[in-house]
Specification:
The complex is a heterodimer of chains A (133) and B (559).
Chain A lengths: L6 E5 L8 H12 L3 E4 L6 H11 L3 E6 L4 H14 L6 E6 L6 H6 L4 E3 L5 H11 L4
Chain B lengths: L3 H25 L28 H5 L22 E6 L4 H13 L4 E4 L3 H5 L22 H7 L10 E3 L5 H15 L8 E3 L4 H7 L6 H18 L3 E2 L1 E4 L1 H5 L4 H21 L4 H4 L3 E7 L3 H22 L5 H4 L3 E5 L11 H16 L3 E3 L12 H17 L13 H24 L2 H6 L2 H18 L27 H16 L2 H16 L5 H9 L4 H12 L10
Parallel strand pairs in B: 1-2, 1-9, 2-3, 3-4, 4-5, 6-7, 7-8, 8-9
Classes of the chains: A alpha/beta (133), B alpha/beta (559).
Chain lengths: 133, 559
């Protein structure tokens, strides 16, 4: 029996235009058998959560390289909870100082992947931690 | 460069060597798997005159300061003076950034380069909902002319040249800069600098677009036309390959797509009726420098040759300055690693050497901590010193284009030139740069290269020190530069005051005038200058155009 495909929203919160990582990972996730929706740039937390709801997503992947992660990432988790989407796995990546990671994890971001992370580590983490609905 | 008889001898000699001496070694120790440049150009064991047999010295290389400028745009390059050492900087408030500028100038930096925070670049005020969390983060928060005054406080704008990274909102920020220069008593013919003003690459890869391609190109050309008449030494655009490369392109693609953008701007200026020799001398470029030193040197040399030919043959330029590819370089941000960050100092040093051997006009060197955060003052100082060491101690500046004549470098130069010309032909056949962008062709080519590169790192086929080879456990780096969230609150409060204090009638009149002019074909620059002088903010001016032009919403191409 075929496994149900993991559905992932790849999102760029805020005004940051660095989308090399987001686009690259979108392709890698698709090759790993996931169903990928890339939101494009300039997403507010509300837009991202709305996309997760509409798409019935299992995972939200957030990418930020402009230093706004401490504001945006927890906000996305908070809004997901408000929409009763606590089951959605939230992961993040970008230019994120190591010392910020404990706070982000406490806020509900499952994992943060910094520059240089092998892509199969990210794929492996998602597959191992995605929650069944 | 060699006569036929001699070439035959060399070819035979190489064959003999390859089958004898080399084969013997290979039978004992096989070669490594990756035998390409960093961008993936296949590289042979040895280069001889045979591989560059078609190279005609006079027509392909020539002399520095002369067509086709392969060897450089100035006759004696760095023997006269070094390139401009220009560190891109800006964070927090205008006041904090002004302090960093005065520090850098005090340390021997020779030009300024303004980083504006993302809201300014995207045409929003600091208190706009989309600016939440972004205020002062990756650049200075500049909303109005008052901020611009503080940014350049005690910096004489007729003596220091300034580069400004704004694209879609370039007209607004240049209007503020020119107004502040006037207030300082600096006449516009003495005001020098560069504004990025390259909206096409925002659509291709950098993401700070506001308006759809056609109206945004109109603003670009308005600025070029205005400066050509009023600010004669200003570089009216910096056509940028830097971000194309950062997004994943190869070296040849970086040049190809940048030159394709350059062709689109030159065509737009010509369509406006500006004679080529009036606008082309003030077009400038901006490239990346990666760590593969020889590939980068070849890339820069090829770029100069291709551009000169295009300006001469396609645009019928007569003024030599129209054919000179003058450019700023920034070392490759994306090459820096968060792992073992001190190693980045070495990468930047090699990239600096590549840049200088390639014959640049200006350079920003990245700080070693930039894969972690915005650069700290200590790291910025090391980056600036790296340039100074290459300038003063390396010996790379004592003669012009020192790598010319290297069989390998000349081979690579020809190879990259050919690849660039192929792309230009392809893009021409598609109907030009705008069509190629609309169809996502350029974006997909870049993404595909990024993908192939990542695969080569993931598989370990290509080694990346500290990332997939020579990995070690290390304590996290502390002492990072942080921008306080308070900057956003303070800026919002300040904006409220600014709007309350200005002469409301004059402000309204100026914005109305701008709206009227923008609906016609007339140049918007004079009306923008009036508006910013009357206290209009970046967001307010950009909103006028959002109303008239609409906003750009990209199609996303994933490949």
């Amino acid at each position: 029996m075929a496994e149900k495909k993991i559905k992932i929203i790849v999102a760029k919160p805020g005004l940051d235009g660095h989308d090399r990582g987001a686009k690259l990972l979108s392709r890698i996730f698709a090759e790993a058998g996931m169903e990928v929706v890339y939101t494009g740039l300039r997403q507010t937390p509300e837009m991202i959560v709305e996309a997760a709801l509409q798409e019935d997503a299992d995972v939200v992947g957030l990418s930020s390289l402009s230093g706004v992660h401490n504001y945006f990432f927890p906000k996305v988790v908070e809004l997901l909870k408000a929409k009763k989407l606590s089951n959605v796995l939230v992961v993040g990546g970008g230019i994120i100082p190591l010392e910020d990671i404990p706070t982000l994890k406490k806020a509900g971001i499952a994992e943060i992947f910094g520059p240089g992370t092998p892509t199969d580590t990210i794929v492996g983490f998602i597959k191992a931690n995605v929650k069944s609905k | 460069m060699f006569d036929a008889k001699e070439l035959e001898k060399i070819k035979a000699g190489k064959k003999k060597w390859s089958e004898g001496t080399l084969a013997k070694t290979l039978s004992k120790t096989p070669e490594k798997k990756v035998k390409t440049t960093w961008s993936g150009i296949p590289v042979e064991t040895l280069y001889t005159p045979a591989e560059i047999a078609g190279l005609d010295y006079e027509s392909k290389l020539g002399y520095p300061g002369e067509y086709p400028y392969t060897r450089g745009v100035q006759p004696n390059m760095f023997r006269g003076r070094f390139w401009t050492m220009r560190q891109y900087a800006g964070f927090g408030s205008a006041k904090e950034t002004n302090a960093r500028y005065r520090y850098l100038l005090g340390q021997g930096q020779t030009g300024l380069s303004v980083a504006f925070h993302l809201p300014t670049q995207a045409g929003y005020d600091s208190d706009h909902p989309l600016s939440m969390g972004e205020v002062g983060k990756v650049g200075a928060a500049i909303d109005h002319i008052g901020d611009m005054r503080i940014l350049f406080d005690q910096i004489p704008l007729d003596k220091v040249t300034t580069s400004m990274t704004v694209n879609a909102a370039a007209t607004v920020l240049l209007a503020m800069y020119l107004s502040v220069a006037q207030e300082q008593g600096a006449s516009w013919d003495k005001v020098g600098g560069t504004i990025q003003n390259d909206v096409l690459k925002e659509i291709i890869c950098r993401g700070q677009y506001i308006y759809p391609p056609k109206p945004t190109m109109r603003l670009t050309v308005d600025l070029i036309e205005f400066c050509q008449k009023n600010v004669p030494t200003w570089n009216t655009i910096s056509i940028s390959g830097y971000h194309i490369r950062e997004s994943g392109s190869t070296a040849a693609q970086e040049i190809a797509f940048t030159i394709a953008d350059g062709i689109a701007y030159a065509e737009a200026c010509a369509a406006r009726g500006i004679p080529v020799d009036s606008f082309a001398p003030r077009l400038s470029f901006f490239f990346n420098a990666f760590t593969d030193v020889l590939e980068e040197v070849a890339k820069f040399r090829a770029a100069r040759r291709v551009w000169a030919k295009i300006m001469k043959d396609r645009f019928k330029a007569k003024d030599p300055r129209s054919m000179m590819l003058r450019y700023h370089v920034q070392t490759g941000g994306v090459t820096l690693t968060a792992q073992q960050p001190l190693n980045n100092i070495v990468r930047v040093a090699l990239q600096t050497l590549a840049t200088v051997l390639g014959g640049n006009q200006s350079l920003h060197t990245n700080s070693y901590d930039e894969a972690l955060c915005l650069p700290t003052q200590g790291a910025v100082t090391v980056a600036l010193r790296t340039q100074q060491i290459v300038a003063e101690e390396s010996g790379a500046c004592v003669t012009v284009d020192p790598l010319a004549g290297s069989y390998y470098v000349e081979y690579l130069t020809d190879k990259i030139e050919a690849e660039v010309e192929d792309y230009i032909k392809k893009i021409d056949a598609m109907g030009g740069t705008l069509t190629a962008i609309e169809q996502g062709y350029i974006q997909k080519e870049i993404q595909n290269s990024a993908y192939l590169f990542q695969k080569s790192i993931d598989s370990g086929e290509r080694a990346y020190v500290g990332v997939n080879k020579y990995i070690m456990e290390e304590p996290p780096v502390t002492d990072l530069l942080r921008v306080d969230m308070k900057v956003g609150e303070e800026k919002a409060a300040e904006l409220k005051q600014w709007r309350a204090k200005r002469d409301k009638a004059a402000w309204q009149k100026a914005l109305d005038k701008l709206r009227e002019v923008s609906k016609t074909d007339a140049n918007v620059m004079p009306a923008v200058i009036e508006a910013v002088k009357a206290g209009a903010t970046v967001g307010e001016v950009c909103d006028v155009w959002r109303e008239i032009f609409g906003q750009y919403r990209p199609k996303e191409f994933i490949s």
